[in-house]
């Protein structure tokens, strides 16, 4: 019996192996490597960019410089386009005005040189100096508005029924006239001098605190052939005023009287160094 019971166990040992082999999966094939070109390496090196603080400051400075140049070019283009669109006769007037200004400066230079020569050659230099001093005092009095003046010039009248003409437009007219050689100016009975100022006062304008109302009448002493073209240049005083639905008339005359006077103001602190 014992032999019969042991026979199946030995049979099982012979039929079943001690270790069952486990199949090992084969390794997955590696994907083929993509070849990296030089252009891809360059892009990878440049992006994302690595910006330092110094580079950022330089970039901001360059941007500001470029913006300023662009604004300057745009402003020059605007002025060039204004002249480019002007008529031929307007351009001729502008050139004539520039020539007149140059001639005035040359005349002033020659006058000063003549005075110097007269002082150097005069036998009585003291009398000549007093004569020139009196003449200079008269000229300065005209410029300061303390002396009446007369001479050739123009009369400009601005009719403003709607109250659209403002103080800055009248000040622009004064500056244009001065640039064209105006030597004495009076507006509605108020003498305009170097330190005069214009302010808006409701629907009217004040000159040095004196209220004036339309129509605004300018009495100007100077060379009429220079004064009138200066007001009629493209984009000048006449066109600016007419855009505000006001009217401007300019008349040349051989005699303009500017008799509005300013009281001389004594300085509070300044004194002559000769005292």
Automatic annotation (TrEMBL):
Keywords: Membrane, Transmembrane, Transmembrane helix. The chain crosses the membrane at residues 54-74. The keyword Transmembrane applies. It comes from the Bacteria. The keyword Oxidoreductase does not apply. Residues 20-30 have a biased composition (Pro residues). Signal peptide: none annotated. InterPro entries: DUF881. Residues 1-37, 106-134 are annotated as: Disordered. Residues 106-117 have a biased composition (Basic and acidic residues). Belongs to the UPF0749 family. This is DUF881 domain-containing protein. It comes from Streptomyces pyxinicus.
């Amino acid at each position: 019996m014992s032999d019969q019971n042991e026979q199946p166990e030995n049979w099982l040992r012979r039929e079943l192996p001690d270790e069952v082999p486990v199949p090992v999966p084969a390794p997955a094939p590696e994907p083929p490597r993509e070849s990296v070109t030089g252009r891809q390496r360059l892009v990878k090196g440049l992006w994302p960019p690595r910006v330092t603080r110094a580079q950022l400051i330089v970039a901001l400075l360059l941007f500001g410089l470029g913006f300023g140049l662009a604004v300057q070019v745009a402003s020059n283009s605007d002025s060039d386009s204004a002249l480019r669109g002007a008529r031929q006769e307007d351009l001729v007037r502008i050139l004539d005005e520039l020539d007149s200004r140059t001639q005035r400066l040359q005349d002033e230079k020659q006058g000063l040189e003549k005075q110097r020569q007269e002082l150097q050659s005069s036998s009585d230099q003291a009398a000549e100096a007093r004569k020139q001093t009196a003449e200079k005092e008269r000229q300065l009095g005209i410029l300061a508005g303390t002396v009446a003046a007369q001479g050739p010039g123009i009369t400009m009248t601005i009719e403003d029924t709607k109250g659209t003409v403002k103080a800055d437009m009248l000040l622009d007219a004064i500056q244009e006239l001065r640039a064209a050689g105006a030597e004495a100016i009076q507006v509605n009975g108020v003498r305009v001098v170097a330190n005069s100022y214009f302010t808006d006062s409701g629907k009217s304008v004040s000159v040095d605190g004196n209220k004036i109302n339309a129509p605004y009448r300018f009495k100007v002493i100077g060379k009429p052939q220079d004064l009138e073209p200066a007001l009629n240049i493209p984009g000048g005083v006449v066109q600016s005023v007419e855009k505000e639905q006001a009217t401007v008339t300019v008349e040349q005359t051989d005699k303009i009287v500017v008799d509005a006077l300013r009281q001389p103001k004594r300085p509070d602190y300044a004194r002559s160094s000769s005292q």
